[in-house]
Amino acid sequence: MPRTRNRRPVVGVVLLLWIVLELWLLIRVADLIGGLVTALLLLAGAVVGGRLVRRAGVRAWRALAAAGTPGARPPENVTGDAVVGMAGGLLLILPGYLSDVLGLLCLLPPVRGWARRRVLRWAERQAVASGIYGAAARGGAHPTVVVEGEVVRDEPAPGRAGESDGPGPRRPIEGPPGN
């Protein structure tokens, strides 16, 4: 089993740097355009982000419903687009200009396609590592179990019509005509 390193310290440092950069940008932009305009821009970003998250969620739900049968997977581009759209919306909801720019980038088709491919690759690696897809995800075939034997069915015992004294004689079920 491959060794995984602990990424918590790295994620913590990156998150802290992100927050510091966002605050610094907010203060600099508020000095340039004013506090009221800055607040209105942040509010507008949150409203647009909320709508994007909702729209992406509805699209993902419809794709799952359209897939039909339980366990069927929706088309990958719809799933990936929904994930990237939700991420873009969530970045817009977060207060800050850096997150807003990244959220808007998630809406551009070239960036969305690149991000969708990355998300799908990551999800596939996670599914294979956890064993969700089993042998099929690792390139193998689904295991098929064949049990040799006869198929039999119960028939009513001979007697009066409609009455049964229990299971009747068992006999093999015949195949389709011509076999």
UniProtKB/TrEMBL annotation:
Coiled coil: none annotated. The chain crosses the membrane at residues 9-27, 33-53. Residues 149-179 are annotated as: Disordered. InterPro entries: FxsA. Signal peptide: none annotated. GO terms for cellular component: membrane. Keywords: Membrane, Transmembrane, Transmembrane helix. Pfam families: FxsA. The keyword Membrane applies. This is UPF0716 protein FxsA. It comes from Allostreptomyces psammosilenae.
